[in-house]
Amino acid sequence: MATRTNRAGLTKQQYRGAPSTLCQGCGHNSIASQIIAAAYELDIVPENIVKFSGIGCSSKSPTYFLSRSFGFNGLHGRMPSLATGALLADVSLKGMGVSGDGDTASIGMGQFKYVVRRNLDMVYIVENNGVYGLTKGQFSATAEKGLTLKKQGTNPYMPVDICMEAVIGGASFVARSFAGDPKQVKELLKAAIQHKGLAIIDIISPCVSFNNREGSYHSYSWGKAHETPIHDISFVPSREEIILKEAFEPGEIKDVTLHDGSHILLKKLDRDYDPTSRVDAIQILDENYRNNLLLTGLIYINPGQPTLADIHNLPDYALNRLTEKDLRPSPETLEAINAQMF
Amino acid sequence: MTTAQPSEKLALPEGVEPIINDFSITVGTVNGSGSQTSNTTLMRAIFKMGVPVEGKNLFPSNIQGLPTWFTIRVSKDGYLARREEHEIVVAMNPASFARDVADVLPGGVLFYDDSIRLAIGRDDITVYPMPVKKLAKASGAPSSLRNYVANMVYVGVLAQMLGIDLDKIRFALDFHFKGKEKPIALNMGVVEAAAQWAAENLEKKDPYMVAPMDKTEGYIMTDGNVAAALGSIYGGVQFVGWYPITPASSLAETLNEYLPKLRKDKDGKHTFAVVQAEDELAAIGMAIGAGWAGLRSMTSTSGPGVSLMTEFIGLAYAAEVPVVIWNVARVGPSTGLPTRTGQGDLTMLFFLGHGDTNNAILIPANPTEAFEFGWKAFDIAERLQAPVFVLSDLDLGMNQWMTKPFQYPDQPMDRGKILWEDDLETFAEKFKMEWGRYVDVDGDGIPYRTVPGNRHPRSAYFTRGTGHDDYARYSEDPENWEHLQNRIKQKFQVARELMPLPVVYETEGGAEIGLIGFGTTEDAILEARDQLMAAGIPTDFMRVRSLPCSHHLDDFVKNHKRVYVVELNRDGQLHQILTMHLPGQAEKMVSVAHIDGLPMTARWVREQIMAQEAK
């Protein structure tokens, strides 16, 4: 039997990575599987993606998917700066950054806010479990107030809301999801990959070893019981006709068109939500926090925001393939400079 | 060569022998009053008269208000180091007046703002009052500019009293204001009025004069930060991540000024990106990301910035990523003396990183060399696949230097061992093995690398600072770890052959005493050598231009009976490195080091060596 391949002529196997060394049942493993599925289904050649991560359990995970993509496991909280420099080398490359709540919202808060500000063309996944796993169970910046952990006592501080920080920082794509909802994770990933600019996805991804107690915000059981999608999201690649559209009543669906002609279709559920409004985004995030909810979906999108490469007026060819004749100005120019010196 | 001749216009009193083109002028002003323009104008005018000249701006860490000094050394013999002695002092600041008056050498000259009504109390110097406020007011300058033009008064008075050509002053102002007529006319008006006032009201009693020579032909005036930026551009820089810090900021600012002019493609797109980062942590992170992805990448900072960058540079060292780091050094530890100069960052850079690390460092001594090392640093970084430092300092970076014009690179770019799609196929054929990121097939410790954007299905690898094997796979295996560390160390044997060689100045017939120095202390040491020679102590001098140490340095130490290692820091950091490098020679190497925040003087070097020799 012939092995199934996608339009890039690749099998799903060719999108996998090394076997995971994270704990059995870790939410991060489920996210890695959805990254593999999303890239496979989008027919992306793995060489067109570059993976980045910081330090922590989440940051180990880029080894476990897309082994044919270049990857750089950097420093704690500093994945964004590495990616910023690297992705300017060839603007046809898509960044895939994986970080955690400790990596992003503690030491990495500065770089997180700044990569948002610069709108680097990268998917930025925060695998958010409210706890430091690799150092064995300390509170992270997103741990809810009142959370009690084995050796740590009770967390007295307000949590950082990663999506709120992203929206306020001017992000062009902000989403929240739950590792226990793989279908939504995958659709959001596809939309994020096809979005031109920085796409933040804050995924609640339970830590089975240190923060999975019943009733804790980042646990599987709580997430399963409380996750409330704000819409039903599906991603339609540019090559496919949007036949689904006709099946819906007017006003029942929101259609966001991306730069490459692909579509994000958002089917209305309980509420009428407009993800292109920052004010609505801030409102829903505030509601989510005040009422201790887990609202998931595409919270904010602005498909037309200029990327870092646009801002820097970079060409569409790869800078890292330029040679001496492109890079070293002529002797005449230096003579002119010498003549201009005092 | 023309011999300097006193100007006919300047009549000296009978019996006074002129002192021509051989003195220092120090100007004491209030920081932020625009005196920098006046001082560089004076210096440039003297330069344009063909007289070797150098200026050091000794300024406080302050935008406006604190006392600041500028010293100009005029030297017919071409000595360009700072001098501690001031023959001519221009006192414009009441707050530093007493000190400025006291600083004038006996027989010297004091020019001062006559609105300062403080006692002078010296009868061994010539004193010229200047009606600064009156002339500034008469200039018609709006009151907002009056303080600035006030400083042009002393330019005009000095021009008249020393014989500095007014045409040359106009030329300097034209350069400074980039040809803009209005400010040139306003400032020149004040200069001319002041010169005329001096001609009518002051009687020349002192012997100091500037007279035209032809000793600046073939030189330009510029600073090391401008030179470094331009050198980097001619080295093909593509990415710059930086964060403002004194005294490095003007390096990146110069890149921003010139790159858009020199590096646009035919469609007007930029073939570079300069990103002002949120901090040094991000600046170096971006630069390392870019270097990893195959761009010629750099950052520029100073000591405290390097401290912040250290963890990332350690990662680049371990993961073998090329990147160029300019450290325009100031004086530490901590905030230290942020607007002063020193050589206190040498050992920090050399050993920077945790675990076993050693780094390649280029050390320019003047702007011409800063330009050269600007482009060379990229070749070396890409060849070694390692971070490469260039250690400049505030003196070089921010002061104006009389220097040779920038020389176009005399070597093609060396992009190092980089493999693209086709190269990966050839690699397999040539070495009869599959490519692996950290496989040392050449036996020089330097493997071949691929970069993102390479579309060959076997080009990718996973980069990490964690332990890894030859194929970049995660490994905590003891043998892998030791093999990796030893291979990386081997690269620094290669570096020894790759780095710029030391410059040697030998005494004819040889000398028993060797002097070793590095960077911007060269002028002081060269001048001290002449003074020592005159005192009957011949010396040879080696200026180290890079670390790790070259074999030439080993020989130089071995071939001299006593070696003085002269440097501008407290602990004698090059001396420390050399004694570690050559333990068998340690006893004959003597540290001559001090740090006070100021550029080194020949007098200090001479006195130190003579005191040592007298022992």
Q: List segments of chain B where confidence is low: pLDDT < 50 over at least 5 consecutive residues.
A: none
Profile the largest sheet of chain A.
Answer: 8 strands, mixed
Mean pLDDT rating of chain B: 95
Tell me, what is the CATH class of the largest domain in chain B? Alpha Beta
Number of structural domains of chain B:
4
Helix count of chain A, per DSSP? 12
According to CATH, the homologous superfamily of the largest domain in chain B is Pyruvate-ferredoxin oxidoreductase, PFOR, domain III
Number of domains of chain A: 1
Q: How would you explain this protein's 3D organization?
A:
The complex is a heterodimer of chains A (342) and B (615). Chain A has 12 helices and 15 strands. The mean pLDDT of chain A is 95. Chain A has a single domain, classed as 3-Layer(aba) Sandwich (Rossmann fold). In chain A, helix 3 runs parallel beside helix 5 and helix 6 packs antiparallel against helix 9. In chain A, the strands form 4 sheets. Chain A has an 8-stranded mixed beta sheet, sandwiched between helices. A 3-stranded antiparallel beta sheet of chain A has the order 12-14-13. Chain A is of the alpha/beta class. In chain A, strand 5 and strand 6 form a beta hairpin. In chain A, 30% of the residues lie in helices and 21% in strands. With 615 residues, chain B is of the alpha/beta class. Chain B folds into 4 domains: 199 residues, 3-Layer(aba) Sandwich (Pyruvate-ferredoxin Oxidoreductase, domain 3), CATH 3.40.920.10; 182 residues, Thiamin diphosphate (ThDP)-binding fold, Pyr/PP domains (Rossmann fold), CATH 3.40.50.970; 73 residues, no CATH class; 112 residues, Rossmann fold (3-Layer(aba) Sandwich), CATH 3.40.50. Helix content of chain B is 39%, strand content 19%. Chain B is built from 19 helices and 23 strands. In chain B, the strands form 5 sheets. In chain B, strands 11-10-12-13-15-14-21 form a 7-stranded mixed beta sheet, with helices on both faces. A 6-stranded mixed beta sheet of chain B has the order 3-4-2-5-6-7. In chain B, strands 18-20-19-22-23 form a 5-stranded mixed beta sheet, with helices on both faces. In chain B, helix 10 links the parallel strand 12 and strand 13. The longest helix of chain B has 21 residues. The radius of gyration of chain B is 27 Å and the shape is globular. At the A-B interface, strand 2, helix 3, helix 5, helix 11 and helix 12 of A face strand 9, helix 7, helix 9, helix 10 and strand 17 of B. Strand 2 of chain A pairs parallel with strand 17 of chain B.
